[in-house]
Give the backbone structure.
Amino acid sequence: MRNLLILLLLPCSVVFAQPNRPEAYPKGYFRNPLGIPLQLSANFGEVRKDHFHMGLDIRTQQKENLPVYAAAEGYISRVSIEQGGYGKAIYIQHPAGYVTVYGHLNSFYDTLEQFLKAKQYHDEQWEQDFSLSPHQFPVKKGQFIARSGNTGASGGPHLHFEIRDSRTGYNLNPLLFDLGVPDNIAPYLQGLYWYDRRYSTYQASPRRIPVTRLASGYRTTDSLVRLGSPLVSFGIRAEDKTNNSPFLFGVYEAGIWVDDSLRCYFQLNNFSYTDTRYLNGSIDYKTYSSTGPTIQHLSQLPGNKLSVYTADADRGVIRLNDTLIHTIRILIKDVAGNASVIQFRARYDASLQNNLFFTMNSIALPPNQPNTVGSTSVKATFGANAFYDMVPFVLGETGPAPWPAASVTAQLHQPTVPVHDNYTVQLALKDNNMAAYADRLVMQLQNNRYGMVKKADKTPEGWYKASFRNLGKVQLLADTIPPVIKTIGWQSGKAFPNQSTLRIRCSDNLGSVRYFSAQLDGKWLLFTHSTQDYLYQFDEHCPEGEHTLTISVQDIAGNRTVQELRFTRLPVKAVKPAAKKTAGKKRR
């Protein structure tokens, strides 16, 4: 027992042979992109919905409009403006072969802001994504480039910051560049689980192994962990922390050894936007999507092609073909090298074995090969990369609902199983009368966490198809209802005496509108977009006087609404300076 305690207290580099070594990135090349101490609210590789977090979220003291500075010398190579995503974002190309990204910005520095606005009016398009040449907007290290904000898909004021390799396009872990985040706290092991890998991870539920935290590390509550399967894998729920932030973060690396033999290890140094959706195969998605804990697999699922893993031939699945006691060690580390270790003894116990069975109407869809399921009314086609593990797929149907339903409602298995890439759904019309609405047919997918509507395209066989990346209920709908336009905080005919904002809300019965355009006296006018609302801030494009504002919106099915609104912009009233008060002296 004493030798085991000594082993657990040894430095991790002595106990474990680390399988991956990150590339040596230059320290000090990049500076903090803000003018305040660098404090994080999210780190690289943190678990997010359908993706790994691709950079750092830097706190801005719960404020907007803090100055943002270029992290190193280079030139602004790209600018993007979008309703979701990173909102307003700047990309800087650096001569050392890196690109830095600054997201959720409120505004750019004046010269760039003026260039952007001129381009938006030229293109008659608010959303933008364009490249720039090296001579247009060069920047020095520490140069002011923007003001922080809360634009795009942001849950609060902060700066999203990324470092990319411009040669490969991969996002790099910014903490490998030593940006000065203080950290001497080891990651927390909050849960340990095992899986019966005789079955798919979408069949077998995680079995919790009770763990006790000690001053020197962690241990299992039971001195011997009994496992009810000869084929198992493990998962952990773990989080990291830094010295100067109250937030909990994702772990950088973790690995598992059995009897001193490495079975599976991951290290989050870099990955691409193309591969980030493999997150859904790196976690227990079934538990996660059911609002359970976030469990990260210490095995590589058969269809998970993410390059962050080092694994044995069984990809981290452990064969216990005997009743011997085996030693299992798990290591969890952060970028700063702080580590947590748990070591325990485990043995297969056949008396605890619990056999599972397919439901009678399920179809086994294996990973790494194309799959098709269907009936006389519905067909779903999945590519070879669709699934990470075998799916016991169940296809259900309910009869056609009343108008505006144009097909059966197909239940495509359960949303607790992730799909990696787009698959195609085809639905047959419920009767020939619905063909009259062919140009207004949409396909709607719904589940308890997700909803989407897409225009349905006709196939040569007379069915209608669309593509999705989530499972759930799908049906064809005839959409003949146009979008609704509503003014917020003002009405047609209003006179605006001072600087103000025009707010327009556009909604549709089946979701958001696809197209929005505003013209002021026949000329395109720049509105920004936030959730359902479109905003225009009075500027030089709206002179004083009476105006006609024409709003045109269109939904996915092609239904269009046009509305004319009138208003008057009055001269801006000059604000008189307040009279100075003079304190009178008392006479003696």
Observations:
- The first strand starts at residue 40 and ends at 42.
- The helical segments are 2-9, 12-15, 110-123, 279-282, 285-289.
- The CA atoms of residues 55 and 162 lie 4 Å apart.
